[in-house]
Amino acid sequence: MPSALQKIIFFFFLLTGYFAGAQVKFSASISPAQIGKNEFAQLKLTVENAREVQQINPPSLKDFIVISGPNQESGMSMVNGNVKRYIALSYVLKPKGVGNFSIPPVSATVDGTDYKSNRVDIKVTGATTGNNPGVNSFTTPFANIDPFAEPAPRALYKDYILRKGDDPVDKINKNMFVKLEVDKTSCYVGEPVIATYKLYTRLRSESNMTKNPSFNGFSVIDLQQQDNSYRVEKMNGKEYNVYIIRKVQLYPLLSGNLELGTAEIENNVHFIKAEYLDQQANIYGDMFQGFADASVPPEGIEDHKVTLQNKPLSILAKSLPDINKPASFKGAVGNFQIETKVEKNNFSTDDAGKLVMTISGVGNLQMVNPPEINWPEGIEVFDPKATDDLYKNTVPLSGRKMFEFPFTVSKPGTYIMPALEFSFFNPRDLKYKTVNTTPLQVTVTRGTGKLKQSNEIAKADTNDPGLARFFKNRWRVVSLIAVLIICGLIFWLKKEDKKEKRVKAAAAIQKENTVDDEPVEEIMLAQQNPLLLAESILQTGDGRAFYTELNQAFKNYLSKKLSIPAEELNKKNISEQLDRKGVAHETSMQLHRLMDEIEWQLYTPFTENEKMKAAYERVNEIIQLLNTYRS
Questions:
Q1: Neighbours of 480 (CB within 10 A)
Q2: Nearest CA among 121, 96, 132, 144 for reference residue 29
């Protein structure tokens, strides 16, 4: 069985690769891998297990329109003592055309070493795939705004009236524009800049953002808007209704002139013809108050579509001064404090200790790293767990970052945790500052020699030191688990082989007896498990791979079950076929909600095992239910 052997080898290398140490990794991914020409994809550049990311160079995106990005995220996870840290930059992209496109490798400088990512490929078709509802909703900030439906705040706004001889394009240019405003045009690397994109208008229109501005070279934090209402502002002596399109705080990641991207707003401008107004005035007199309060027939309105964009603007990001730069400086810009404490000052060698470091204040907290700790001899420290508590609506960013360092001590005695030094650049005072913690003392007494279980440190649930030493040898664990999984795979493959034989037997019987209402394809579809690979990935805890496979497997099943070509699979076609099969409307709605939830998870950086398991079970239940319906 060559295919079975290939699968075993594949899973063996996958497993051993998963447990191989925490090395720096720089990778690129794009999701979905196939979209329609009017849909969006997310490109993500991820650096894993880095102490410090000096620079990630912008990718070459000549075949795409950047709808959003770069948007930065970071995080850390610890499973059985194995810590994975990551920093990622993501872009939401819209293709410029149809075809197969490649985004070449991107370079980055991490921990002083240059790395290159992998190339990513994407297929763009002319048909709509419906693969990304989560992205589409983000790109329309006017979803809850309808300037055309709102009454003008000033009665003198009559610019929507189009008289004979008026040039509608000229009226639009004089009464509608997009403007970018910044609170400063020069700053230091790591110092925030507030950028606000606004639509100024004295006209009535339906507006939609078709291109989000890009922010290459910045870490981006969106500032939430309190509401979607407009305000009135004066510009060159004229009042305008002003809508905030997007407001962000930007933290430069490198020095130089960094250009802020342009936002494009597509507007369907509605003019009312002056002759129609004159007719209404003759009929109703002063009771007629304009077409916002009256039913205007199509012949009374003239529409014009126009796409507006702001003028580009550059920010000069200055390098931080080298004069008086402390040796402990790691890129923190703002004003910070640092505090350390231990969970317990007195414990035995049977127990685990914990040092908690808290860095708080205002500034580029998302990029802050903990200072180096010179641990006393005799203390074995484990990888830290990081927790963010940030207030993203404040400028600069404020809050705190906490780092928990679990540790053990093998010999009794008194140990002094040295004072820590944390340095930062204060842009207000234009100088570096250093804050220090106070030394901490812990007293460790001799224990019984039986290690207690600790939630912070991944150890075996046993009091046997020999077994504890065994679990410290990672490769022994890998080998044991690999053997168990290989045995399980062999058992599974044999089971699948028997299942395949049963399907073939059923097909043969079906061919002989020719039952019209239950064709062979239906029998085979019902007996196969389309979620087999998703189920195996579920066990690894890889959320992104799991949801990608679950999404694809579910769609493949629906394509076969409903006899819809994969490239034509969308909500409308699915609903029509389910209705033809007599599937209840409630079941159909449940299926669509489930598909949306799965696709949304593809854009969520954090995944939970319980949610993954629940998603798998819900998809499996839907499939089992649909299998009861025959063509």
A1: 11
A2: 121
- Are 530 and 604 spatial neighbours (Cβ–Cβ below 8 Å)? no
Coil, strand or helix at 115 = strand
DSSP state of 582: T
Cα Rg for the chain, rounded, in angstroms?
Answer: 31
Q: In what order do the strands lie in the sheet with 440-445?
A: 346-348, 440-445, 413-417
Q: Using an 8 Å Cβ cutoff, are 133 and 35 in contact? A: no
- CB burial of residue 41 (10 Å; 0-12, 13-18, 19+): buried
pLDDT tens column, 498-526: 556 555 554 554 444 444 444 444 444 44
Is 149 inside a domain boundary? yes
- Three-class SS state of 309: strand
Distance separating alpha carbons of residues 543 and 270, to the nearest angstrom = 47
Query: Same structural domain for residues 410 and 332?
Result: yes
Contact between 71 and 45 under an 8 Å Cβ cutoff? The reply is no
Q: How far is 137 from 461, CA to CA, in rounded Å?
A: 47
Paired tokens of 531: 């979620």
Tell me the C-alpha distance between 246 and 570, whole Å: 31
Which domain does 101 fall in, by range?
Answer: 23-137
pLDDT one-digit tens code per residue, 107-157: 888 888 889 999 999 998 887 665 554 343 333 344 434 433 443 333 345
What is the value of pTM for the model shown? 0.51
Whether 299 and 173 share a structural domain: yes
Which of 400, 383, 379, 402 minimizes the C-alpha distance to 391?
400
Q: Do 93 and 182 reside in the same domain of the chain? A: no
Closest Cα partner for 272 from 152, 435, 449?
A: 152
pLDDT in tens, 582-616: 777 778 878 888 887 787 776 554 556 777 888 88
pLDDT over 80 (residue 479): no
Burial 113-125 (b: 16+ CB within 10 A, else e): eebebeebebebe
**258-270 per-position pLDDT tens digit:** 999 899 998 888 8
Query: 352 with 438, same domain?
Result: yes
Distance CA(623)–CA(534), nearest Å, equals: 14
Q: What is the pLDDT of residue 348?
A: 92
Task: Give domain status of residue 434, yes or no.
Answer: yes
Residue 160's φ and ψ, nearest 5 degrees, are -75, -5
Residue 72 predicted with pLDDT over 80: no
Alpha helix ranges (H) inside 1-97: 2-19
DSSP per-residue codes, 428-480: TTTEEEEEEPPPEEEEEE---S-PPP-SSS---SSS-HHHHHHHH-HHHHHHH
Helix (H, G, I), strand (E, B) or coil at 337: strand
HEC letters along 343-391:
CCCEEECCCEEEEEEEEEEEECHHHCCCCCCCCCCCEEECCCEEEEEEE
